[in-house]
Design goal:
The complex is a heterodimer of chains A (about 220) and B (about 200). With about 220 residues, chain A is mostly helical. Chain A has eleven helices and no strands. Helix content of chain A is about 70%, strand content about 0%. In chain B, the strands form two sheets. In chain B, strands 2, 5, 6, 7 and 8 form a five-stranded antiparallel β-sheet that branches. In chain B, strands 1-4-3 form a three-stranded antiparallel β-sheet. Among the domains of chain B are: about 35 residues; about 90 residues, Sandwich (Immunoglobulin-like).
């Protein structure tokens, strides 16, 4: 009987201390030694969450700063910037982007893809089909110094012609390898896009009339 | 002949299995198993510690009373223990309320596929190497690499298709980009990483 009482007391005491910790679990960021900076980072994440933004990429951004030994203030600034990119991406990928699409859109913005281009990528696939992969490839091409207009045009052309996300990903990987081998990014994209295009059915009248990306 | 081999049931099972055609491993199934293992939370030190305890048996009514009392005490103390400024962010873990809803991916679609992806790092002098990246939320202890006798370090992780940024953490302090992969700029922290494009072939 004494052991039961002891257990009850232990459980109650443990819960008294555990409840605040459990409540904090959603936005807790470990590893920032400066407690004031940590609270500021957690507040940034919480504010973003209250606006309906996905929390996981923000926690990852904060953790990235911890691993890269950034100061607490720099982590806070980076998290705030990521939150702005996520919000912008969500807006331009409306009406109902998945978390993966929002994150891919934010990554695209981070490398310098203009925000309105996200809308053009979204429009190139039927509603409901994820554009996360095309956005990732767009990001990678722009990161390899392909002009954003040019990259957008090639990717949305392929999407409208019915290229699958896997085919578009293959394009991105091939361009990566070609650039590593010494080809210019523009030339690599040109030749690889041609290769994927040759595997696709001829354009229909409807797809030919569809709105196209801005030409350089 | 061992005790097991003499068992008639075991004999029947063995004969049945011997007659069955050889199974070919399904790469997608392997990827799903890897994904499940990858995503399943590892028991923490506390979970292992609590699992080692054997609590005395308590009746259902007693357990219910304990749970109610513990919860009540927990919530009352939360208001008393947590400073106001820190409590506010915790409330933000509620469901999204924004104008644009975040759609949940379907049970099986391109976004839920995981592709086993191998990483290799050469540093014979390192005592430990870890893989950090957007796929493991840059956690330093999440993905250690295994050292091979030839001095190479390697690990294989199931990744979602798409573009991933990563780096290697050497001996817990030195963050280095993968010399075998394209570089990824870093506007936020100014530390260059590497990029891998993953896709489901």
């Amino acid at each position: 009987m004494n052991r039961i009482r002891l257990t009850v007391v232990a459980l109650a005491t443990a819960s008294a201390f555990a409840a605040p910790a459990l409540g904090a679990q959603g936005v807790a960021v470990s590893g920032i030694s400066d407690s004031r900076a940590r609270v500021a980072v957690e507040r940034e994440i919480a504010q973003a969450a209250s606006r309906g933004l996905p929390v996981r990429p923000l926690i990852a951004k904060a953790q990235e700063g911890v691993t890269k030994r950034a100061t607490g203030e720099r982590i806070r600034v980076a998290v705030a910037a990521q939150a702005r990119r996520l919000e912008q991406a969500r807006e331009h990928l409306a009406p109902s982007p998945s978390e993966a699409e929002i994150v891919a859109g934010a990554d695209a913005l981070a490398v310098g893809v203009p925000a309105p281009m996200l809308r053009q990528v979204r429009a190139a696939y039927p509603a409901g089909q994820s554009v996360a992969m095309p956005l990732d490839v767009l990001t990678e091409l722009v990161a390899r110094r392909v002009p954003p207009d040019r990259a957008l045009e090639q990717i949305t052309d392929l999407m409208r012609r019915g290229a699958t996300p896997t085919q578009i990903a293959g394009l991105g990987a091939s361009v990566q390898a070609d650039v590593a081998a010494g080809l210019t990014p523009d030339a690599a994209l040109e030749v690889r896009a041609r290769g994927v295009m040759s595997l696709l059915p001829a354009p229909t009248a409807a797809s030919a009339l569809a709105p196209r990306g801005t030409r350089p | 002949m061992t005790e097991f081999e003499r068992d008639p049931i075991i004999d029947r099972v063995r004969d049945t299995l011997r007659g069955a055609p050889k199974a070919t491993p399904d790469q997608r199934a392997v990827a799903r198993v890897l994904q499940t293992v990858w995503e399943s939370p590892r028991p923490s030190v506390w979970q292992r510690w609590l699992g080692a305890w054997r609590l005395p048996a308590v009746s259902a009514l007693g357990a219910g009373a304990v749970a109610v009392a513990a919860l009540a005490l927990g919530f009352v103390s939360r208001g008393a223990v947590s400073p106001e400024g820190e409590a506010a962010p915790m409330a933000a873990t509620s469901a999204p309320t924004g104008e644009y809803p975040v759609a949940q991916p379907a049970a099986y679609d391109a976004e839920s596929v995981r592709v086993p992806t191998q990483f290799v790092f050469e540093n014979a002098g390192a005592a430990q190497v870890a893989l950090v990246g957007d796929f493991n939320e840059w956690k330093e202890d999440a993905t250690p690499l295994v050292k091979l006798p030839n001095g190479l370090w390697t690990t294989t992780v199931p990744l979602s298709p798409g573009r991933h940024v990563y780096a290697f953490l050497v001996d817990g302090t030195l963050l280095v980009a993968d010399p075998r992969a394209p570089k990824a700029g870093d506007e936020d922290y100014g530390r260059e990483g590497s990029v891998v494009m993953v896709f489901d072939r």
